[in-house]
Amino acid sequence: MAKYLLLKHYRGAPKAVNDVPMSQWTEDEISAHVRYMRDFADRLSASGEFVDSQALAPEGTFVRYGGEGKPPVTDGPFAETKDLIAGWMIIDVDSYERAVELAGELSAAPGKDGEPIHEWLELRPFYGNAPTITE
Amino acid sequence: MTVDEALLRSLTPKVLGILVRRGADFAAAEDAVQEALAEAVRGWPRNPPRDPLGWLVTAAWRKFLDATRTDTARRRREDLVHAEPAPGPVPGTDDTLWLYFLCAHPSLTPSSAVALTLRAVGGLTTRQIARAYLVPEATMAQRISRAKKTVAGVRFDRPGDVATVLRVLYLVFNEGYSGDVDLAAEAIRLTRQLAAAIEDPEVAGLLALMLLHHARRASRTAADGSLVPLAAQDRARWDTAMIAEGVEVLQAALAQDRLGEFQAQAAIAALHADAPTAEETDWVQIVEWYDELLALTGSPVVRLNRAVAVGEADGPRAGLRALAELDGSLPRHTAVAAYLHERDGDPQKAARLYAEAAEKAANLAEREYLTRQAARLNARKNPPGR
């Protein structure tokens, strides 16, 4: 019973095996990909392991506190930012092994020529509750 | 006026047991009981029943029959043969006990067993369980429904293994609480109910362990939510009545002379609870109990905790020697090393190890605690304003 984040990157992850931009796929290939992602989430719901899934737009702005009485400062996007998050899925599973297994399945989503993308997903554990009994 | 939820929930396993005994299959009976509970929550404030158990059994049985009729009609339409086996409790055993065994069946994953136990034995709603474990209600509903399917064919021609039930209850207790359900209190209630249904010193041992830890809950976190370690806790805030009960339950269990890991853990908790101040803790006896616990479990986590106790009983050097024999990748190993090095008079090394331990912490409260320890020692090294 532990939650994990499966993090998908636009930028910042190592190169996928089947690394062709979506704009160069056929429409059927795109449909197959979308269907795979939806079915994957449905399957996790059915197995009682799904928590959340969200996709993020690629554009973003950096914001910081501007000082007392001043508006926040906005800037960017910075070209040199290496990491760009595309979205995530949160799962609640019984073991780390299960989390790895599911990340592997998600990374097998079909891309160009219907072949698995083999995309690198970042698997990050959530902090859990502090257990009551420790000593 | 609201419904006496504690009463309702304590009746849940009895009602479910009666339905199954009458021949209802477990999964359908469990749904029917949940519906009857919901109806009771709605209706009882205006019309409290004279016989709550009788009312619930009647309501649940009616729900079960309604659902079966609908289901049968549907099945007929689909031209399916209805051949559902009805797993029933062993005649002569307590229905409640049978339910505990079923919900903790070894074919279930730990998270499924926990969810099913909280719903079928504990009478919590799917929504409450989902919120306690911070998952969507639909996900929790699926987890429970799959768990029910998994145990659908289980028959009990002999009692199950009580150890599997205890592991599930221990998991629930150790989760602490989030959402609107106090899982620790719920685990205690369920363990108490189990202890009433079966004579087993380990069940009593687990109940004692829970009570002895729960009694210290108020002192375990500061007002800002940060962790307060045992040695720094305000012992005046410990619940002495709960400690007394825990000790009494433990002594009765130990008197049966069938030691198990929960009794040994409870004995350690009792020795902590018994010390008027941290300095007066009987660490020598605690080390002896860790030796017992180690003989029973062989667990590396026990070895690690034993090293801490050795450090208190025989000094930090002895603790470090005990620690050196253990695998450095154990959770909390670095944190223990940091603590022992500080006590051994090496604050610089301790600060470095605390910072390293903070990065490996498994939860936020622990990470913050360890970071603060590193910061405290670093500030001593470089006092501000110099």
Could you explain how this protein is built, in words?
The complex is a heterodimer of chains A (about 140) and B (about 375). With about 140 residues, chain A is α+β, with helices and mostly antiparallel strands. Chain A contains 2 helices and 6 strands. Chain B has helices at about 5-20, 25-45, 50-75, 95-105, 110-120, 125-130, 135-150, 160-175, 185-195, 200-215, 215-220, 240-255, 260-275, 285-295, 300-315, 315-325, 335-345, 345-360, 365-380. Chain B is mainly alpha-helical. The N and C termini of chain B lie far apart (about 65 Å). The interface between A and B is medium-sized, with 23 and 46 residues.
Descriptive key words:
heterodimer, A: 135 residues, alpha+beta, Alpha-Beta Plaits, four-stranded antiparallel sheet, two-stranded antiparallel sheet, 6 strands, flat, B: 386 residues, mainly alpha, 19 helices
Largest sheet of chain B: none
State the CATH architecture of chain A: 2-Layer Sandwich
What is the 3D form of chain B?
Answer: elongated
Count of helical stretches of chain B: 19
Amino-to-carboxy terminus distance of chain B = 64 Å
Mean pLDDT of chain A: 91
Category by helix and strand content of chain B: mainly alpha
Q: In which range does the helix fraction of chain B lie?
A: 55-70%
Q: Order of SSEs of chain A, N→C?
A: EHEEEEHE
> Strand pairing plus helix content of chain A: what structural class?
alpha+beta
Residue runs with pLDDT of under 50 for 5 or more positions of chain B: 79-86
| Total individual domains of chain B | 3
Largest β-sheet summary of chain A: 4 strands, antiparallel
Q: What are the segments of chain A in which pLDDT stays under 50 over at least 5 consecutive residues?
A: none
Order of helices and strands of chain B: HHHHHHHHHHHHHHHHHHH
InterPro entries (chain A): Dimeric_a/b-barrel, YCII
Family (chain A): Belongs to the YciI family.
Pfam family, one (chain A): YCII
Organism (chain B): Lentzea xinjiangensis
